[in-house]
Specification:
With 427 residues, the chain is α/β, with parallel strands linked by helices. The protein is built from 13 helices and 15 strands. The longest helix is centred in the last third of the chain and has 20 residues.
Length: 427
């Protein structure tokens, strides 16, 4: 990891700025300064640094307007995004928010309590691990990682440093998805036999003609651990219809896009948050029309099956069905199940009414958030394994206990990826 920490000049500038503003602005002290061993007290404001100010960060600026939050850093390698992000934060009340090209400035600042990471996927692990190593709590976008081995490293780091990490799998904070998962988990549709999920597709990862790098855009740092490729606007675009999401070097395509949401709900409903499937099959294998994966008990999860009754996820059981989508849409067979109260002895799943405030509350209580690091790792592992099977065009066998691909040494190499010199994964 290239280290560009806070230099002496920048430190003095920060100190001077604080002194000049101390007489007119309210004093916001970090948990560390308040003697809370780096953890937030119940009445303290949480000082947050925002890293990666592209399209997805628009979903997170709202936290800066909450009474318990103070936004103090905005970081991006694109100067246009930095200025835009600063304006978004200022519009929500941020007064002394600093700008930087380097995430190290954010995580090394002792006044920062927590970091929101919304970069392309290939930067998630390095920034999150570095933040946790410096005593920060983390909200990281989904999928949590680019590789399986990064996920293992993030779990270990989170446990070692006692950080509160929330993955941006916000469907778990939806009452509709929770209701669907509880119906499945409590056996209301009998034994689950198949789940059908909608992911869609991206354009192919074609190489665009090289373009001049915009002035001030730190493209080398944008690439980070990924291989060097010529700059193009299409490559770095945060477009939800493609952009960087098209490329294997920066993500897991649709498996890491919608798959990180819908596979996560499947894991939740099936009670597999600490486990996962055992085999993955690519589209076309032995005539299969669609990619799918299978759990040890035979439950099959099929990607983009057309018969989902118009929903994003369709759970099919021996005694009924549950279909669910965003927007509060749920349908059951039999139909009365949708509104049927759970029985006294039924399992109740974790209740979160808002994904961001759940994280903020857990920062103060030190409880586990609804989408914690282990959950995020297990879901991301499914995304990565599905992509490995698709890329290699052959089945992959997976041991969810040892967390290793079984019987295929070439495929096992894809559990990690080479990292470019200067961008090693922090420990």
């Amino acid at each position: 990891m290239k280290n560009n920490g806070i230099g002496r000049r920048r430190f003095l500038q920060k100190g001077a700025g604080f002194c000049l503003g101390a007489s007119s602005a309210p004093m916001i002290l970090s948990a560390q300064v308040l003697g809370l061993n780096g953890r937030i007290g119940p009445n303290s404001r949480i000082q947050i640094g925002y890293v990666g100010l592209g399209n997805q960060m628009n979903a997170h600026y709202g936290m800066a307007g909450l009474s318990q939050v103070e936004a103090i850093w905005a970081c991006d390698v694109n100067p246009v995004a930095r200025i835009r992000g600063l304006k978004e934060l200022q519009n929500r009340g941020a007064k002394d928010c600093q700008l930087t090209n380097y995430f190290e400035d954010v995580v090394q600042d002792s006044s920062v309590d927590a970091v929101v990471v919304s970069t392309p996927d290939h930067w998630h692990a390095a920034i999150s691990i570095s933040a946790m190593a410096h005593g920060k709590d983390v909200y990281v976008e989904k999928p949590m990682t680019l590789t399986i081995e990064e996920g293992k490293a993030m779990v270990e780091s989170c446990q070692r440093h006692g950080s509160v990490l929330q993955v941006g799998a916000q469907q778990r904070s939806s009452s509709t998805f929770r209701r669907a998962a509880e119906l499945v988990a409590n056996g209301y549709i009998g034994q689950v036999t198949e789940v059908r999920v909608a992911l869609g597709s991206f354009p192919p990862p074609v190489l665009d003609a090289p373009e001049a790098i915009p002035e001030g855009f730190d493209y080398d740092r944008w690439l980070g651990p990924a291989p060097v490729e010529p700059y193009s606007r299409g490559r770095v675009s945060g477009s939800y219809g493609g952009g960087w999401r098209r490329f294997w070097d920066y993500g897991s395509r649709k498996n890491g896009d919608w798959g990180a949401h819908h596979y996560d709900i499947v894991q939740w409903a099936l009670g597999r948050d600490d486990s996962g499937p055992v085999s993955f099959f690519p589209k076309g294998w032995e005539g299969a029309e669609r990619s799918y994966f299978v759990y040890e008990d035979g439950v099959r999860v099929v990607r983009d099956h057309p018969d989902r009754k118009g929903y994003q996820i369709r759970f099919i059981g021996t005694e009924g069905e549950v279909c669910v989508s965003r927007g509060g849409e749920i349908e059951t067979t039999p139909s009365f199940m949708a509104n049927r109260p759970l029985r006294p002895g039924d399992q109740r799943l974790y209740v979160s009414k808002n994904h961001k405030t759940n994280w903020l509350d857990c920062i103060q209580t030190r409880k586990q958030p609804i989408s914690n690091v282990e959950i995020g790792h297990r879901t991301a592992t499914i995304c990565h394994l599905a992509e490995i099977a698709d890329r290699l065009q052959r089945p992959i066998r997976w041991d969810p206990v040892s967390q290793q691909i079984v019987g295929d040494e070439h495929a096992r190499r894809w559990q990690d990826r080479p990292r470019r010199a200067g961008y090693t994964l922090p420990v």
